[in-house]
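User: I'll paste a sequence; please echo it back and then give the predicted structure.

Assistant: Echoing your sequence first, then the prediction.
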Amino acid sequence: MRYSHASKAMALTGALALTLSACGGGSSESSDGGTEGGNASYVVTANTTEPQNGLLPANTNEVGGGRVMDLIFTGLVSYKADGTSQNELAESIETKDSQNYTIKIKSGQTFSDGTPVTAASFVDAWNFGADDKNAQLNSYFFESIKGYDKVNAPKSKEDKMEGLKVVDDTTFTVELSQPESDFPLRLGYTAFMPLPEAAFKDPKAFGQKPIGNGPYKLTEWNHDVNLKLDVNDKYQGPRTAKNGGIDFKVYQSTDSAYQDVMSDTLDVLDQIPPSQLASYQSDLGDRSVNSPYAGNATITIPGYLDHFKQGEEGNLRRAAISRAIDRQLIIDKVYNGGKVKADDFTAPVLEGYNKDIPGSDVLDFNADEAKKLWAQADDISKWDSGAEFTIGYNVDGAGNKEYVEAVVNQLKNNLGINAVAQPFSSFKELRDKVTSHKMTGGFRTGWQADYPSLYNFLGPLFGTGAGSNDGLYSSKEFDAKLTEGLKATDPAQGAKIFNESQEILFKDLPAIPLWYQAVQGGWSNNVSNVEFGWNGVPLYNEITGK
């Protein structure tokens, strides 16, 4: 998962295959799927935000770090532009019961420093990521593996999951705690990438100068300025670099980034600022894109706040706030109509999406109902009329200031409360405060899919103890539904169960869905073959200079 400012063959036998198409672009494809022509030595410049943490696979769950991680690491599988998976390091992933998997990796694969990628590179990395003593944000992704609970039990000295076994240099086995047929689909996500032995000697230092195995290697990280990636000549997979490298520029303002695209000093921008949404397609012409992807925007009001704890009062107040927001008005005024009002907690481009889930009417604007719900909460515990209700946002994200200010104005007008927009200077600053659970109010959140599944929008965000569960939500009923859905071997049945779990979320509102995302981006006159994938991320390796 990726917190967005907003990844990843096998045939799917279980929950939720995907039918997506790539988003726009100007690529010219040859018969073998590659690109034709262009300057293959050109170094592409692209926008980004400063990564929150060091670049370790299991500790990267936001897009600033994720953009880089997906290029300097590669896992067992990766995802094509349309969201279908393809084998990367996996020779085969086999199972007879969706609980016991035998994974064979291709021989002769190396990290960028020449050290071999072996079965132990995966097993050791997954065990490191799962162990709560290492405090990795993505540890929840390993919960399905047998022994995860023992590794993370209080005072446990275990540091290895019993469900992972190295057979030989190119083979390892995975035993899950229960059958989960979509397990192979997850394996292209960052958390499941391999690590060389050097990573475990000093993880903090390694995160600043990671040694990966992807199509690129990180050669410079000038904090808050740029991250420079050179081509990794050791890479042998399907995502071969068709340029001379990627130079990610850290921007504090997407308005500045847009002007740099217009002047051809920035090559690729994946977020158009609201100030330019009405004109960017006419300004850029065929160098622009506007297409839906697997992502959404939400507001999280953590359950550790007074008056918003889980229970009747907190649920009433979150429902009141949701009802007080006129989403369509904000979409029209701030985003020039470029978003779609949310009907659920996932995204319409995913197989199994259902816009008619019982309880979803809490997302419909109704000022009178909002006042009624807030008054009912006051009957339980009175809200101080002078108290501030803040919504935090990062100023370096396109449209964040505009939409958060619009939301707080609607809350003032429709609930009569002192709602205030709370700016943070960067995405990193906001995420540091959020992940330390020290927010004093609500805050903007958004999700960019890690892999194409309804579950990816539910489990990592709202499962008890999940690494991206920012509001510390916990529901035994919801967790049980997730477990039931993962066991389903029929995709339609899995989708039905996951959507039933959303009925619980609509009652508790651990986050308030706002709208579904669309990739609105552009590129300079210097580059060709620009295409955006199923999750809204540019296919950086395919871009060439002119």
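The longest strand covers residues 288-300. The radius of gyration is 23 Å.
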